[in-house]
Amino acid sequence: MRVIVLGLGVVGAAVAANLARRGHAVTVLDAAGAPARGTSSTTFGWVNGNNKQPPHYQRLNADALREHVRIGGEDAGWLVRTGHLEYATDDDHRSRLTARVERLRDAGYPAEFLGREQAARLEPDLRVAPDALIGWFPGEAHCFPELFVAAMLGSAPVTVETGHKVTAVTGDGTVHLADGSRRTADQVVTCLGRHTGSLHPEVRMVEPEKGNAVMGFLGRTAPVPVRLSRVVTTASVNLRPAGGGSLLAQTLDQDVHADPDGPAPEHVTETMRDRIAGRVGVPVRIDAMLVGQRSLPVDGLPVVGPVAPRGYVVASHSAVTLAPLLGELVARELTGEEQERLAPYRPGRFAGEFATVRPARLPGEQ
Ligand SMILES: Cc1cc2nc3c(=O)[nH]c(=O)nc-3n(C[C@H](O)[C@H](O)[C@H](O)COP(=O)(O)OP(=O)(O)OC[C@H]3O[C@@H](n4cnc5c(N)ncnc54)[C@H](O)[C@@H]3O)c2cc1C
């Protein structure tokens, strides 16, 4: 089968590699000048099945985390499975964390509480209130998405063509490019992330607006002389290693100021800097402040399935977590094995009214 995959973020890379490994002739087209220039380069990259609802979606994320491990993410270097610590210091957060740890444990997902000293052995330089309730999720991980994309492309014979903006795709497998040319394939798989609606308006994505659920800041620090080895979430700031001693941070309550048309305001950068410094106990400098835009279907769930006889769409939030599993399931489905577990995520579900998904503002949300 000749397949054209549109979009070369984590999703397009995983879909392309899984199809190419099965012997299909796969070409990936992307508008950007290089792979992984979309949301996959402005992400917190926490790989988890933690605060996901409903249960089928939690299981999908938990299985995707296992898939990252199964296909060798740790050896290849895109996956760092050092777990996740969540610190709750107010009553509301404590009760939400308690309920979540119990629910996840009941579902067979590794989740427990740690004492202060046990947590301090894991993160000796972290400063948190002595009476914090500490949740520990030992199986979780953080990802370097560019390395994931590189590993996918290196794992199978995929033809990559960057700098090709797609303007339309028709149900007979014809792809129209901005330069006026056309390509045809037996199957076209759209993996355009937040731009999915530009080719498939029937797939309802949340449009970016200042402070809505799509928008999120990410700050990358200059190298900091502290030991921080894993994802850490607290009410004021989320942290993870970003490589070379730098940290990646989120301040979810500040995301109300994130504007799709502008840079991060100075006060947001200062707030993030001060909160990171408070957690790690040394001054920090933020080298890069990014304004991320999530790829977010209106109900918050993935969109995966056929939209035409030769057209198929994959778009999702949390796709750094989900990409390897979605790649595998989509490749199976496109080679004739319908995947029952994709049934809740079909593109046809958007006919009626939808309540727009709530922004991620609380620790453990993403
Ligand atoms: C602030 C923030 C924090 C996040 N944190 C997490 C997290 O902790 N864990 C997690 O799992 N997920 C997280 N996510 C979500 C995750 O990053 C995304 O779901 C994922 O990166 C989407 O990947 P994608 O491949 O679908 O899209 P993208 O990476 O955006 O790739 C789409 C590609 O399509 C190309 N394209 C677009 N339009 C066209 C066109 N017309 N023609 C050709 N090419 C085109 C783009 O150039 C791009 O390369 C976060 C996102 C944000 C914004």
From TrEMBL:
Gene Ontology cellular-component terms listed: cytoplasm
Highest taxon of source: Bacteria
SUPFAM superfamilies from the UniProt entry: FAD/NAD(P)-binding domain
Signal peptide: 1-16
Molecular function, one GO term: oxidoreductase activity
Keywords recorded for this protein, A-Z: Oxidoreductase, Signal
InterPro entries, per the entry: FAD-dep_OxRdtase, FAD/NAD-bd_sf
Ranges where the FAD dependent oxidoreductase domain occurs: 2-332
PANTHER family for this protein: GLYCINE OXIDASE, SARCOSINE DEHYDROGENASE-RELATED
UniProt-recorded name of the protein: FAD dependent oxidoreductase domain-containing protein
Species the sequence originates in: Prauserella flavalba
